[in-house]
Amino acid sequence: MTRKLIKSVINIENKEHEFIGEVSLLEQETWGKNDTLKIIGKEISRIDAVDKISGTASYTSDINLPGQLYGKFLRSPYPSAKILKIDLSKANALKGVKHILTYENTAKYKWYYETSFLLDPIVRYEGDEVAFVAAESEEIAEEALKLISIEYAKLPFVVDTEKASTEKNIKVHNWGNIVEPSEYKRGNIETGFADADFTIEDEFRTSVVLHNPTEPHCSVVNWDNDELVIYDSTQAVYQIRELAANALGIEQEKVRVIKKYMGGGFGSKLDLGKYTIAAAIVSRELKKPVKVVMDRKEQNLCVGNRPDSIQKFKVGIKKEGLLTALQLNSMGTVGAFPEGAGLSWPAKTMYKCPNLLVNEKSILTNAGAARAFRAPGHVQGIFGLESLMDECAAKLNMNPLEFRLKNYTEVDPVSNQPYTSKKLKEAYKKAADLIGWEDWKAAGSSKSVNRIGLGMASQIWWGGGGPPAHANIKLDKKGNITIYSGTQDLGTGTYTFIAMVASEVLQIPIERFNVVIGDTKLCPYAPVSGGSMTAPSVSPAVRDAAERLKEKLMDTAAILFDEEKNSIKYSNGFCVNSDGSKKVSLSEIAGHLNEQDLLIKGSRNENPKGYAINTFGAQFAKVEVDTLTGKVTVLKISASYDIGRVLNKLTLDNQIRGGIIMGLGYALMEERIIDENFGKVLTTNLHTYKIPTMMDIPEIVIEIASDYDPMISNTGVKGVGEPAIIPTAAAIANAVNNALGVRIKSLPITPDKVLIALYVSK
Ligand code: MOS
To answer: Do residues 179 and 370 touch, judged by C-beta distance below 8 A?
Structure first.
């Protein structure tokens, strides 16, 4: 039983993280083919399903602590202003108001953007935090907000991305509006274009979109003696512990972060909220719990978004279909605080193209700040790239799938390393068969009123996961088994796969396992649930722990039977001796424990060196476009993926369907709209900010192209949460083009854009 302490560099998304920590040596061989497994890969209902559908599941906003206060933010009505004067006298006089925070009494709390404080005298977007009221009820807190009088000096503002990028006089921060421009080069772009038979230049645009998870952002915070307990709706309990401790200037060990059930995050719940820290400050001062729940408007203004994009491409192609050069200049707005709006990873990695030149800019504007959003960058980038690839195919009179296969790469074009596994060809074939791709005809072949089109798009993402990720298994004297891991279930099925993995190893029903996650006090470290890393990082640690427990059980049985350990067999929760005459169950062995509990540690192994780990996939779309109204109806989406091993077929289906539905919203309706004259967001609720409803959801068919990844871990699992959304918008846009013979180059593809494009093309 060996583990080692390592210092290693792991690559998460495009950032390298160095860590020193414990990893498991890959002692257990990767599970073999799926059909050799009893539980893994099957359709298993969630172990928390009854809790959830019966309404007994406790989400963060369901938590109420005795004597708690309710917190509410006063937010700036202006996109840019300086606060001249704050008068709290009326608000403070309201019965039930307990405390009010402003920049004046919180000046020692710097925020983790260098340029701002928890509450800053400069407000930089509509919705920026101005004051925080804690009161005996939510209603009193809301009433108090109206009684605070603020004198603002309005400042000039800029909310348009392109305008902000060249604006000299209006700066969101003193240093300017452009955040770290980045460049990437490969080969020689000039030679590449010189080699081409054709070049195409085009521009694609996407809109800012909002996460809108079902459950709003919220925290319930309590200072218990000198320990700070934070119930938070978060994708990252350990990260919140670290960030909260830093923000408050206390030791991490004094902070406990807890999250049980959650109604989605999509990246917007990876960060620490100002609401959490404001609540903690008040809680510390008043020695009372404080609860803060964002409302839907705050959800749409203040807790993140996907940057928009303007993507300018130039591509060189040979007659036979090979890409010779690809140039991309892009920009996107990250709102009022530094973030990244880069989107070039698909262009860099999707195809074998020897010559590349990429320039990217993230632009500050006076609007809510961007945050990671389900496959950040890739969703925008694949829309541009895959629209462009269809244009290339059309130029060559080639089937779009054939064009992509011509440029298929067997090695990662950035690192030149082979992939641990890549089954994209298989995914293309399966998804093509499921949609009926043989019916594909050149764009615009029909002149009828309602036109049918077929389109496709590819996807690439990381999603290999990695260390550090731990899981502990505890066996008590009564034979109860509990698994602990500091991971999170965002609604994705984490509880269930953890029990399934342990059940597979120990060959006892999943009901036997109690799963405890999302608690920094009880659970060993596991990474944030982002980057599609949860299942690929945590499932191997759980298997590691379960295998080690099995070994211990067999060790113990050998002692009980007075036989050599290697003569003991393990089967369905029993240890059996060499001639089958003696048999002892897991629970009986537990009864022999001298200690009350046996605690076994499991860890994720390191990823293999010298390989690229990626997920791959494709979606194909069938649409109908009404040329009189401009309305696009998606009839069907087929999806096929290489995501390594499937842990649970039911939750896999949930993930992919959810991604496709979200991608459909991105393609056809979702868009944050800001009035440029006032710098105010017009889409602050789900009436004006359109998301898909049941009526918009097409037939969805899914087939997985991979069995397992043979190299990355003992479970061979890669992630699927983000891959699910990546190709949808591009596939739909390509299908719309196929139907009309006219391409819509900006998302969302709303009826007005369709009608204008049809009119202009006449
Ligand atoms: Mo994701 S955007 O890493 O939750």
So the answer is: no
